[in-house]
């Protein structure tokens, strides 16, 4: 059987219509992000029945703020994973960027910069993000130019940067001070129309990265590296530049999240974000980023980070020991990779 196409006036078979329908269904259901989003909705519904406090405005605001820090860094790490790399240094980068920002704000307080509106805060934010940029640049150069393993390089950087954080502070937390400190807290821990600013930063960054990945040459190059790096090089893609860029972006996202956490906590402790590497990578993998490279995106990063926080929050409300959260995150990573593997085998069979 056939029907007349209103667009072209030609006949199209029912089989082509069925094919298009199947393509739509496969395109949607083939996405791990779709499965995770569905799981998130189910879990939130279950949590709302198990605890009346789950959907309370205070708890939802707490969930939103907590997951936004992890989500921001997950966006950057997802870029690295899409290229087939890994960044284990993001937790330490968060700490050192936050500490640098707080220390510089202390240092410029009482200087001539106090007479220049916002100067002290701008210098402090620039210093924190600048340190993060240098860490990402070091990672990128060692991996792209020297040819070191991403895992080993970023694992070593994790230790170096964390050690610097403890050495600089001698293990003591650093609190921001100065005439701009109140504004600093507003832009890092404030609210806009009742929405935490950290969430707004996360959504804006996710939108920007989505546009970059799917509508720019740089985004196509990122996916090309993850798909086949040698083939990408043969087509003229500047492989080294792309690799360095994604590690810099990953570190900058970690630096931003660390600075936002200073506003939330009121200080920058040396152990800030310890162990966050596992949670961040878990969020990326759960959201659909393939550790082999070539697959991933900002939507999955945000949903993966939110899913982990919702589960963590649910465990707290249920009175379950917090140490079980670590076990759960590891189990979720393995399950997500297993589901992705099974789905891939089914699609290729």
From TrEMBL:
Keyword Cell membrane set for record: yes
Coiled-coil parts of chain: none
A molecular-function term among this protein's GO annotations: transmembrane transporter activity
Top-level taxon of origin: Bacteria
Keyword vocabulary terms for this entry: Cell inner membrane, Cell membrane, Membrane, Transmembrane, Transmembrane helix, Transport
Matches recorded under InterPro entries: ABC_transp_permease
Membrane-protein topology: Multi-pass membrane protein
The organism of origin for this protein: Microvirga tunisiensis
Protein name: ABC transporter permease
Main location: membrane
Pfam annotation, one family: BPD_transp_2
CDD domains documented for this protein: TM_PBP1_transp_AraH_like (cd06579)
Record's subcellular location: Cell membrane
Entry GO terms, CC: plasma membrane
Residue stretches spanning the membrane: 34-55, 67-86, 93-113, 119-144, 192-213, 244-266, 278-308, 315-339
